[in-house]
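User: Is it possible to get a 3D structure for a protein together with its bound compound? The compound here is KG4. I've pasted both below.
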Amino acid sequence: MLVLGIETSCDETGVAVYDSEKGLLSHVLFSQIETHIEYGGVVPELASRDHVRKLMPLISEALQKADVKKEQLDAIAYTAGPGLVGALLVGVSAGRSLAWSLGIPAIAVHHMEGHLLAPMLENEAPEFPFVALLVSGGHTQLVNVKAIGNYVLMGESLDDAAGEAFDKTAKLLGLPYPGGPELAALAEKGTPGRFRFPRPMTDRPGLDFSFSGLKTFAMNTWTDLQKNEPDEQLQQSRADIALAFQDAVVDTMMIKCRRALESVSATTLVMAGGVSANKALRQGLQAFMEKNGGRVFYPRPQFCTDNGAMIAYAGCQRALAGEFQGLAMKARPRWPLDELEPA
Ligand code: KG4
Ligand code: ZN
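Assistant: Yes, that's possible. Here is the predicted structure of the complex:
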């Protein structure tokens, strides 16, 4: 089964070709950072227009790199949600139309299922069942995964998603978009232990998260320091705040992951989504799982953030199960993961 995957849910245009026998044949990505940087965040209309410009050339490039003619494809998979509606519609309409013109099936992929299955693209892939920590710009979720499509939501963020909290904290510290990786890089220069930020919602049972208070804590700390410290110290203080913020997020996630694993007696943890590219989070969870006799799996960093490979892979699994989309072009900006059916 040879599947073309298309991702356009936010600010990255991703295309890939996945073969169920040979694995990933090609993947190409265009990031819109340059377009959005001057606005400090993603401008939805600009994102849609950029997807329109980049998608068709990227499809040609992905096919060429895979040495595949479009007539050889068995199906086209595209992200149908959740995400920005205009951005989604570009991939949905291109993917659905291309499938129609080639007379092959189309597959509407759930973006978070794409993230969740991305570790399957690695040589050492996790086996079901496992607990998944999905941490992206729009979602923070703990999911009990028994099989493809068998997803039970165990907990989620009640306010800002983890990536959103990283981005907003980065912005208030004066860092450019996209804030998450910028804040992580700054945190590497921070002084360990100078500040200790709260670990939100860890003092009570449950698996939900809340990160907006942490962002406010960072803002208040920064505002106080700006008033009280000489200018030459502020650069170091900014890094110290970045580190304290990152430590708090990582620690909170470790506490919740441990609870989630214990509650279903699981020993395998999968993490995916943009924030799973965070080195401190990867190292923290790796050390914790090793100490407790379990294993953690995550995608290579470039498949943590949005990409076409995860959509081609997830689409291929759905195609193998015979799940295809009708002729309607449907984008779902909101789409709960647990509405998916087992493959
Ligand atoms: O999965 P993704 O590419 O897009 C969504 O589905 O939202 O995730 C993007 C998010 C952004 O909030 C970005 O700042 C965050 O992932 N991110 C990071 C890192 N790399 C990306 N956050 C913390 N540390 C990183 N290294
Ligand atoms: Zn994503």
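Residues 111, 115, 136, 273-274, 306 surround zinc ion (ligand 2) (CB under 6 Å). The chain has ten helices and ten strands.
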